[in-house]
Amino acid sequence: MANFTQAYNLTSAHEGGYVNDAIDRGGETYRGISRVHHPSWDGWTKIEALKRKSGFPGSLDSDRSLQTKVKSFYKKKYWDKFLGDAITEQQVAEELYDTGVNMGVRRSVRFLQNGLNLLNRNQKNYGDLVVDGWLGQGTLNILSQYLQQDNNPTVLLKMINIQQGARYIDIMENDSTQERFARGWLKRV
């Protein structure tokens, strides 16, 4: 079974610290948690208190209770949503998690489902999945069949990454202000 802490540590390297960039659609963020998208996260109360003290924003990273809140948030809002503990291949779980954090869990799961469908040799290896973004037992079963037959997640991971990269390009083509994030986004692909 996949290990959340290992995935969390890898993704955390991309998420940085405190940022309040007017051009970033997420607005004020801490370690990738956007106040716009998650205004009720209990870590914001702690951040507001630390804003009034010297050493801000550097003081955020050394606050253990805040770091616990961050890790708990990511486990509940991302890892648990795509049943990360039930995935047998660590690399696949890490990719779903990282993509989910950056683009949303449903999009991440759709990339997985679409990739599995495209790799089933016209349904000779296994049947097509409904690409709905919900990871349930059916998707887990097909993923298991794929991993047993291919015995290597590399091709599936490439399929997910190709879709992820295409999505980033689409975002930038439709809003040139987002081009400034290209290098950071592409590090994730």
Q: Short description, anyone?
A:
58% of the residues lie in helices and 4% in strands.
Question: How many individual β-strands?
Answer: 3
Distance between the termini: 23 Å
Structural class: mainly alpha
Taken in chain order, the helices and strands follow as HEEEHHHHHHHH
Second CATH tier, the architecture: Up-down Bundle
Largest sheet: 3 strands, antiparallel
Q: Specify the helix fraction band.
A: 55-70%
Number of helices: 9
Strand content: under 5%
CA radius of gyration is 18 Å
Flag low-confidence runs.
none
Keywords:
mainly alpha; single chain; globular; about 190 residues; Chitosanase, subunit A, domain 1; three-stranded antiparallel sheet
Describe the 3D structure:
The chain is mainly alpha-helical. It has one domain: Chitosanase, subunit A, domain 1. Helices cover 58% and strands 4% of the residues. The protein has nine helices and three strands, in the order αβββαααααααα. A three-stranded antiparallel β-sheet has the order 1-2-3, with no helix packed on it. The two termini are 23 Å apart. The model has no long low-confidence stretch (mean pLDDT 94).
Q: What are the SSEs and their pairings?
A:
Blueprint: H1 4-15, E1 18-20, E2 28-30, E3 33-34, H2 43-51, H3 58-61, H4 64-79, H5 90-103, H6 105-118, H7 137-150, H8 154-174, H9 182-187
Antiparallel strand pairs: 1-2, 2-3
